[in-house]
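S., here's the first fold you wanted:
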Amino acid sequence: MGLLDFFKKEQREEEIFNSAMKARDYITAVKVGEKLLQKYPDSIYIINPYTEALIKTGQKEKAVEVLLYFAERKTAEEYYDVAIVILKKILKIDPYNLKALRLLISALQKKELFFGVFKTLEESYKRFKKYKISYCSH
């Protein structure tokens, strides 16, 4: 296989992935997206639709896991803006995810977005209080 064939194959996988997402063929999108994510683990352009496809196929926990792993890496790399967006997305999917909540608060603090910290804590407190969930892990 020549170099040109290699690039055609790479491009073809991305086209299949994008076509599957447009056609709402989420099963195909998950299969191809998994391969693409292994090749491009830092691509937000793959992670977002891939996790959407996971959710549509009933794999919400896996979607949260993928997003959380990505957000943790972005936080460690000090890309807080990207991490904050991803962490907020996680909390929309799973509003009681304490790990995402703690990481979001930490990222907001590092960006010195203290009002954001306050609002996040306030919203979480109300949510947890409504469902009588303890914020403190024992």
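And the second, which I think is the more interesting of the pair:
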Amino acid sequence: MVEQKDSIAKILVVSGESFSSALMDYALKMAQRLDFEIISLNINEKIMTMSETEQGAAKMDFDESAKKSAGQFAAQGRLMGVKVTSIIVVNNLQSAITDIEEQEPGIRYILSEPDPKQFSDSGDRVQNPVFNLVYFG
């Protein structure tokens, strides 16, 4: 097992095809304050349920949108002095997060987009990203 103290502290930021500006801003400011790096994860689970003929085109569209969004995230990170590494996958969300946590022992926090259904009647209320502390016991 890799020692936690030897790994670089990171925030895993999870989204679908693209990251909202609110999520990117929140994650980058948090990483800047804490002197953490960011791993951005664009993930799509729906493609796995499609027929083989549908998967090819859907994966190309997803990859194109995700690469553009990941590039914008990395560019904004460079401007703020935060290293952003991108991962783009078609997989089950929990499996992907588990795999990344095994490869990247420095992950301390996971951030994701808020559930839009949960805040549908929020009006002008600010919707902060969903926050999860990764505990290592």
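Why I say that: The first strand starts at residue 10 and ends at 15. Residues 52-80 form the longest helix (29 residues).

Talk tomorrow,
H.
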